[in-house]
Amino acid sequence: MPETAIVEFNDVSKRFGEGPDILQGVSFKVAPGEFVSIIGGSGSGKSTLLRLVAGLSPISSGTLKVSGQSPESSTVERACVFQDPTLLPWARVAANVELPLRLRHAPPTERNVSGKRALELVGLADRADAYPRQLSGGQRMRVSLARALTLSPRILLLDEPFGALDEMTRERLNEELMGIRRLQGWSALFVTHSVPEAVFLADRVIVLGGSPARVAADIRVTLSDKRDADTRLTPEFGAAVATVTQALRRSGGGA
Amino acid sequence: MKPSRQQVLTLLLPALVAVFALAAWCWIHLALPENDRFLLPPPDAVWAALIQYRAELARASLNTAQGAVFGFLLAAVISALCAIAMGVSRLVRISFYPYLMVLQMTPIIVFAPMLVLWVGPGLWSVSIITFLICFFPLVTNTTQGLISPDSAHVELFRMYRASRLQELRYLRIPAALPYFFTGLKIAATIAPIGALVGDYTAGSSAGGGGLGFQTLIYSSQARYPALLATAAVTCALGFLLVAMVVGLSWLTLHRWHDSYERKDV
């Protein structure tokens, strides 16, 4: 990999207080612009791994670099999307999307422009004045995604963002997410329970397994970059899903 | 627009209860031996007293209302500031919370005569007594609201490197509003009682006797219909305050808060 990795785990372990290791000896790199799915059974430390990159929680041993710096001191813009959209119910959609910019004291015009652009990306420009409770679950997730995009992040950290949505909505949002990524070229760490979702979105799928969790498999997805709904029907997609599913079974996690 | 079944019921059922309550009241009055009937004056006697003493009751109400509103507003503002201090700092919360309860448990009746000595009778002591009675429900509810945001939201703000002040302004204070209004509704119902107790003990409220003072006079003269009329006027005052709070709450919250979601029953 000629370019410097944007995220680099090197023998990272994580435990909380005096408890046992949650993650142990985790090593992998994410290249700029690379989309990495992370899959593993419940309690395999997937979310913890994202929190480490976000700088929300310190590592216990090893080294973790975000663009060559520690996660806490790195200025690389990172944005999180959680399973819960965590919108502010009292704020209209536009204000929710502009929140990160408001917290950075961005001038109102910049807030408006960036907010509007982010809402257009997720196809909700016409709901800017709505309140979150007036939206469907899928729409709320889109707003949450738009909020993450307003800061033009270089890394997107997604923690089962579509886990609570129905299959149809989830697939459509996956396709849209691919489209936005093609436009913006950020890197992503995408945590999910769903193998097809992990494969559909990613350049690489990392399987976490065992207790404490380690990297059980690191699988490159060799599908074309232009993926759409039809991609799911191809034999290549089926084969990739099978490979990841097998790796997940061998790791002792997953269904 | 045709009123919905729900709307009809919310008007009709309370009205029905009122009719039954009045009937029961009259029945008890008539069931008493004739010599004891003065103990529970019938509704029409109370109504007559209300008309007869309307001038002094109106003046007294105005005085009491002044103390009630002033103390209520004072409690709203000061409790909000205290709640912010307690909501922001766990240490402040732990340190002061037990004493808030002491404040609430101290019988006002014990405290009031001393207050009169400290600040003198009149609007100030009535307002302070009202303040004391309104403060606790306000400060506890608002503090609860300020610490109500879940960890996911708090983490979101940390993630975006929000300052404590921004977290307060954009997350905690808006989240506390519904709780604040709950406290405000409770405070509004008890503020007139506080003011009444205030001018019962503090003698007179602003520019003459309040409802508490009238209570003192009517009860010493055994004018029970007038006494009940005073109670009715105090209730009306409470209703008025609550109605204002409910209106304000609706204006602030109805667009986003789930409790105002239209229920299609």
Would you give an account of this structure?
The complex is a heterodimer of chains A (255) and B (265). Chain A has 255 residues and is an alpha/beta fold. Chain A contains seven helices and nine strands. Chain A has a six-stranded mixed beta sheet with strand order 5-6-7-3-8-9, sandwiched between helices. Chain A has a three-stranded antiparallel beta sheet with strand order 2-1-4, with helices on one face. In chain A, a hairpin with a 4-residue loop joins strand 8 and strand 9 (214-220). The longest helix of chain A has 18 residues, at 167-184. Chain A is globular and about 50 Å long. Chain B contains ten helices and no strands. In chain B, helix 3 (54-88) crosses helix 9 (211-220). Classes of the chains: A alpha/beta (255), B mainly alpha (265). The interface between A and B is medium-sized, with 21 and 21 residues.
- Distance between the terminal alpha carbons of chain A, to the nearest Å? 33 Å
Q: What does the radius of gyration of chain A come to? A: 18 Å
Mean pLDDT of chain B: 89
Number of helices of chain A: 7
Low-confidence stretches of chain B: none
Number of helices of chain B: 10
Number of strands of chain A: 9
- Morphology call of chain B: globular
The oligomeric status of these chains comes to heterodimer
- Give the neighbour order of strands across the main sheet of chain A: 5-6-7-3-8-9
- Shape descriptor of chain A reads globular
Helix content estimate of chain A:
25-40%
What is the topological layout?
The complex is a heterodimer of chains A (255) and B (265).
Chain A: E1 7-15, E2 21-30, E3 35-39, H1 46-54, E4 61-66, E5 78-81, H2 93-103, H3 108-121, H4 137-149, E6 155-159, H5 167-184, E7 187-192, H6 195-201, E8 204-209, E9 214-220, H7 235-250
Parallel strand pairs in A: 3-7, 3-8, 5-6, 6-7
Antiparallel strand pairs in A: 1-2, 1-4, 8-9
Chain B: H1 5-31, H2 43-52, H3 54-88, H4 90-105, H5 108-119, H6 123-146, H7 151-159, H8 164-201, H9 211-220, H10 224-253
Helix pairs in contact in B: 2-10, 3-4, 3-6, 3-8, 3-9, 3-10, 4-6, 5-6, 6-8, 8-9, 8-10, 9-10
